[in-house]
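User: What would this chain look like folded?
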Amino acid sequence: MIKNRDIVVFGIQAWDIEIGSNCKNIALEFAKNNRVLYVNPPLDRATLKRDADKEKVQKRIAIKNGEQDALEEIDTDFWNLYPKSLTESINWIPSHTLFKLLNKRNSVKFAKDIQGAIDKLGFKDIILFNDSSMFLGLHIKSLLKPAQYVYYMRDYLVKVPYWAKHGERIEPQTIKEADIVVNNSTLYEEYGKKYNPNSFMIGQGCDVSLFNDADDTIAIPSEFEGIKKPIIGYVGYLTSMRLDIELLEYIGKYHNEWSIVLVGPEDKDFKNSELHQMENVHFFGSKDESDLPAYVKGFDVAMNPQIVNDWTIGNYPRKIDEYLAMGKPTIATATKAMEMFSDHVYLGSTKDEYVQLIKKSLEENSEELEQQRIAFANSHTWENNVIAIANALKEINEIQS
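Assistant: Here's the prediction, encoded as structure tokens.
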């Protein structure tokens, strides 16, 4: 475990983001035994122009103008920094030469803000933890001179349009700069090793405490009343970018002895899909996060019908841990990232394999298997995730010494 250190965490998600964040969870775990500074991404010119009337941007403008303090205390020994500097929006610039120039300038501004907070807090010999901020992360080591620089990969961002133009060239350079690269899937570990031998798979943390039904106190929602069993269910954003609509349509069309329940908001492709014409397919819409365990409890089989593409092939879907924490038989698409679940999740690659695995999961489910799934999910804590980071750092230190 990392203890009594000064740690600076920055990345691509701000502390005041509405959705869940690996980076925030890791920072909170770091803060249990260390002093931690969490740095928000700086305000960029495009965001200022586009969202100037939004509350969060208004706050950053006030901080930029010196009307509010840039450093906020979140908890004991835990602070959040809003950088004062305005950076240029450069991800779409066609010229590599101009991009390099402006990226260096952005990095210098960003590092100056961080250094000011480091000096104010009296941080020494810092561990610098970078959550996938490949552009600003390229020069940060030379500018801040940390004792250790950690680069964290949890998504294949170079295939995302925002990062794609310059990311495929820049991220390998940022990986090389790091003292250590930590990854939440074996696919990303292999990618990292191409550019840095100190690349480690540390798994994924997940807070499954909401999905604890050991006392059988979670009530299945009334929406399930009248729906024919067995129920095959999914919880999450229904988007064609990540989910295989054709697979769901196939299951729904050719196996109407099963009911499919889909919980979550839909994108346009899902709204226009044939699924809405099928009597055995039920859309429950968006639900509060706190209510999701009750909906998972209503499933006989949980699934993650992921489509395989550049965005998903290395993705670690946290919903798998949530399904398993409820003891549910779980079907998921076979990918490199899902190999670590192979002892507890049914993995399929084709429509027919999905169907056969659903049948198998219904036939062989037992109390013993349910308890094994729950125990496995409960091992994926943020504490264990941070311990894995600490062990990787220790291994590198021993090698280098």
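DSSP finds 14 helices and 16 strands in the chain. If you want, I can go into more detail on any region.
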